[in-house]
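your task:
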Amino acid sequence: GCGNSALSHDLHELGYTDVTSIDFSPACIAAMRARYACCPGLRWAVMDIRALTFPDASFDVVLEKGTLDVLMVEETDPWDVSPQAAAAMHRVLAEVSRVLRPGGCFISITFAQPHFRKPHYAQEAFGWSLRHAACGDGDAGAFHYFLYVMRKGQPLDPRDAALGRRL
């Protein structure tokens, strides 16, 4: 879900001129198409992240920024995620894996800490490796966010694979 974020346009301005953005909201996509009509390399589509309509191996990079967090918004205990939320997360990640080309990269930016998010990403069925880093300005009162990078066709570290088997 790209929402009304300027990220796609910012990427375009940095030289990434082939960017496809999706969102569940037709109104959002219509507004983004109108706002960035001057950028022909930006494409916009109404789509459900749980059932992507792109062909297999369509993308070199899939980037999500907080979209997956929506799947967990109603969870009351991040240590004990409901079977419904876990299944929804698995379904979305399976779709991401399906549309990634071999060697492709899935980048996830979230406030979700590794002990909560890595078990979802660390599924051998997705066929990707997993790395993460904490990001933030270092202020004691600041929230940190996390960057997760999955590389299609690279093996999971055995410790990460063990995390994935917990779900």
